[in-house]
Structures are given as C-alpha cells and as structure tokens.
Amino acid sequence: MPQVNENPPPPNPWQGKGAPPDLDKLATQFCKRAKKLLPGGSQSAFFILLLVFVIGAALWSAIYTVPSDSVAVVQRFGKYVDNVPPGLHFRFPFGIDTTQVVPIKRQLKQEFGFTTPNATDPMQSPRGNDAKRETQMVTGDLNAALVEWVVQYRISDPVKFLFEVREPSETLRYVSEAVMREVVGDRTVDEVITIGRQDIELEALLKMQATSSKYAMGISIDQVQLKNINPPEPVQESFNEVNQAQQEKEKLINEARRDYNKVIPLAEGEKDQRIREADGYRLKRINEAKGDTARFLALFAEYEKAPEVMRRRIYLETMQKVMPKVTTKFILDTESQGILPLLNLETKEVAGHE
Q1: Which among 129, 153, 221, 345 is least buried, having the fewest CB atoms inside 10 angstroms?
Q2: For the residues of 61-103, what is the DSSP string, one character each?
Q3: pLDDT digits over 169-203, tens only?
Q4: Quick one: angle between helices 236-305 and 307-322, nearest 10?
Q5: How far apart are the C-alpha atoms of 28 and 36, rounded to whole Å?
C-alpha cells in the first residue's frame, strides 16, 4: 500500500497563468533561431554576430555628449576621476565610468511662497503645503508678515555640489528659509513691508553665501529678491491704509523738494546777480572819483602856474556848459541906470542876472 505524505508541499505560486518563463529554455530557443538565420547555421557565425553586438553596445555606452553650459563629473568604479568640458567624449563602457552632467553656467533659482508652472527642477518650487508655511514669519516687533522671495544661484564647484553635501539643492532651501527668518526677525513690520526691502535682500544674500561656503556646498548665490510682502489677511486692510498714508507722505515730501529746488536756485541766481551789479556800480563810482580827483589835481597844478589864465578858462568853460541850457537871457550893463523902464528891473536884480 503506497504511503501518503501527510504534509504535501505548498503549491507553487508561479504555477498556472502567472508562472515566470523558463530562462534556460528561452536562451536555447534564441540560439536555435539565431543559427537558422545565419548562413549555414555555423556556430562561429553566431559568435561573430554576438561580438558585433557587444562592440556596438560598448560604443553606445562609451560615447556621451556634454552640453555647452555644463561639465561632466567622471567617476570610475564610483571614485571621482576628472571634470570633462562641453563636447563629445569617450569613457570606459559597461558602467566602469559613470558621468553626471552639472550645469555650472546656468543660473538656477528657488522660489519660496509661490510656484512657477512647468518647472523642470523639483527643488525650484515648494512642495505640498510648504508654500504657505514658508511665507509665515514674525518680525522683530512681534507682528506677522507673509514674505515671498526668490534665490538665484549657480553651481560654482561641481565636485563639492555632488559629493560634499547630500541633497545640496534641498539643503539650500533650508538655509535660505532659516536666513530669511533671521533677517526678517531683526526688523519691524514697517521696515519689512515698506522701506527695508533692499537692506533685507543684501543682508540675506551675504548670510546665505557665508553659510553655503561654510557647508562646502559648491554653490554661489547671485541674488536674493523679495517678491510679495503682505500682512496677514485679518489686518491687511489696515496695513494697506498705512501704506497709502506712507506713500502720500512721500509724495508730499517730493513735491516740497521739487518746489524748493525750483525757488531756491532762482533766488540764489538773483542774489548773485544783485551782488555783481553792486560790485560793478562800486567800481564805477570809485573809478569816476579817482578820475575826477586826478583831473582836479591836474587843473590845480596849472592854476598855480597861471591863476588869471586858468580862472578865465574855467569861467569860459563853465559858461559854455550853462548857457545852452538857459532859454531866456538878459544881458545888462552894470554901470547903466534906468534902461528898459518897462521891465522895472532894479540894480540888485540886474546884478543877479549877470
């Protein structure tokens, strides 16, 4: 009587429809079909075909191209070998040499608080609900603000970027967020929203670059740019009113400066003109006085030489100036008496008209 196995083996899960194919059987079938395709079905021809296939696969895996804005980091059995410039290059095939293309000339960016559609870099935009969380910050005066910003950077050292820090792009996001929270936390909400944007960008840039250099990330920060900075929604209307008042204040200040720059230079010009006119008049009067003095001294010197002649000359010159201006003239002889009785002229009056 045959013995019955009380513990039969478990059924094969691969039996039936889902069973995997027999690899040995498939290989045998492939060899038979390849021999039939070859002329004469010789085994040597099969090995020649296999050799050609292997050489083609080796060339295919050995040739690679590096874009113009990138370099390729070559590893041989996982060990760093060299940086390869752009162009067509060769490497050891079949995984002996592996290459990683790093875009060192391309400017990359990371966005915080918002997302650009169809971005190719997974680390460029926040993931999931991180966009809202990244923007929520507390200022130095214990007010809340929603800050959105962009970090633009380049890969300065591809070796450090690949091997010094694990996930350098993600690390840069953490560094950027930490630095921005620190910088915003040192300022008031008015500075963050209105007048302190440029200072925040500059300070954040310097601190991000210092931290990246400290961690040896191989990254160079080009620019930090603040985008939208808003207060939380419950107080946004009040902040908008304050912002409008600030803008109105700046507008009035600018108008006052415009009027000042218009009036003051005009007054300064008129003042300089008056001063120059006064200086000219002063010089004119001084020169005239000096000329009159010199002329008087010259006449006085001639008068001392011949007093009667000079007295007569001065008298005649004076009369030449005075007489043309007199409209009515009476010429009288001082020795005659009672002439022209109709005029009723007395001796004193006649003497006065002489």
Answers
A1: 129
A2: HHEEEE-TT-EEEEEETTEEEEEE-SEEEE--TTTTEEEEEE-
A3: 999 999 999 999 999 999 998 888 878 899 999 99
A4: 130
A5: 13
- Per-residue pLDDT tens for 52-77? 777 777 778 888 899 999 999 999 99
Q: Token digits for 67?
A: 């874009």
Mapped onto helix, strand or coil, the DSSP state of residue 142 is: coil
What is the rounded CA–CA span in Å between residue 28 and residue 42? Answer: 15
176 CB burial (10 A radius; 0-12, 13-18, 19+): buried
Output phi, psi for 308, to 5 deg.
Answer: -65, -45
Which residues, other chains included, contact 127 with Cβ-Cβ below 8 Å and sequence gap of 6+? none
36-40, 48-52, 121-125: which is most confident: 121-125
State the pTM of this model: 0.56
Q: Any residues with CB less than 8 A from the CB of 88 and at least 6 apart, and which?
A: 63, 64, 65
Higher pLDDT, 330 or 117: 117
Task: Please give the single-letter amino acid code of residue 276.
Answer: R
Burial class of 313 by CB neighbour count within 10 A (0 to 12, 13 to 18, 19+): middle
How far is Cα 100 from Cα 71, in angstroms, rounded to an integer?
8
Q: Which residue has the tokens 């214990």?
A: 142
Burial of 153 (C-beta count, 10 Å sphere; 0-12/13-18/19+): buried
